[in-house]
Amino acid sequence: MITETLLKDIRSRFAHVDSCPFEGERIFFENAGGALTLGSVVETSARFAAIPDNQGRANGASQALVDIIARAKTAGAEFFNAQGGQVIVGESGTELLFRLVRTAVTRQARGVVLSSTIEHPASRSAVAHWAGVMGLEHRLVPHDDDLGLVTPDAYAAAMTPDVTVATILHTSPVTGMGMDLNGIARAIRSIAPEAMIIVDGIQHASHGGIDVAAAGVDGYVISPYKVFSRHGYGVAWVGDRLTDLGPEQLAGGPERNWELGTRDTGAYATFADVVDYFDWLGAQVGYADTRRGRIEDAGRAIHAHEKRLTDTMLHGTGNLKGLAELPGIHVIGGIDNPAREGLVCFWADRIAAPDIVDRLNAEGIRTHTRKADHYSGNILDPLGQEAAVRVSMCHYNSEAEVARFLSVMADILE
């Protein structure tokens, strides 16, 4: 488990853990919008920004960059628990989802393309766009408004043998609920065993527990700035079946290459820093003797710590009432939802969500308003809400920070 002593060590490894460079001291509960950055990532970014050499040249510096990329790809495969396939870097997580979906839909150009109403537009819009371009049916699996998630049974009910591409959101950045990825994938495969399954893991990645081998999917995409790295790139694991369809390539270039143009070695190196961090954390909380084992131990410890944080936020601590006890508060997905991953989203009867966010910010507590727009309307519109307050935590947050949040919330609601 993450003890108080270990938590101090963890927090020391992140930049701006308790203060904003522009606004001063603050509590950071906006991790779903972008997690804190590892200090090692900051150092690595600066180091590689200064290197003028490119990969593929006949000199020692170029070879060193090639070796660094190879190491990062190996680290990425361990992070995803990939048995085959390839780890690639792109412009962003959204861009990679669009590219994987585009390849899967246009190269098959037949059947039904499936996604769910819980999904972020990064995957849902990609499916809608390319299904429309190819004249294919885009079928939507309905999510459960009360639980804030979509179930394997819902996917099973929507499945037919002609589904050729299916997308799955691993964790919702609005409700905070994690989907039963393995169960959903099994439901898809039981009816359409050859369907290409592409996963949006952007929100899930910081909470640990990615295992593409166990899930049996064909692609998995993350955004490193949401898992302790920096902006400016995305990372995906692409399975061999999806590569077999033939992604866009330079004429005469390597036939199975997904990456177009010269990639930033620093992007790869900073992702390797993230994997190294999971490796280090796993060694502090477990006894695994393999790198993958330590990554899994880290994920379990992260999940357990974040559950303590969300339980405290919902049920209170000491003489402070939790959100479940505060008057007029409604929590999306329900109070005791075992699918919750480090995030609580709510609205209040008497105070608008943007006003709550502003008042929390004035007290040095950073949260975020989710509006019923193209990002969150799929969640909020069925609930009849124009906006909600999203409080998103990571394993470097503390129960003391949650207590401060509850104290301020009590004052706001008085």
From TrEMBL:
Highest taxon in the source lineage: Bacteria
Domain Aminotransferase class V: 27-405
Keywords: Pyridoxal phosphate
Keyword Signal: no
InterPro entries named among the record's database cross-references: Aminotrans_V_dom, PyrdxlP-dep_Trfase, PyrdxlP-dep_Trfase_major, PyrdxlP-dep_Trfase_small
Pfam families linked: Aminotran_5
Protein name: Nitrogen fixation protein NifS
Organism encoding this protein: Salibaculum griseiflavum
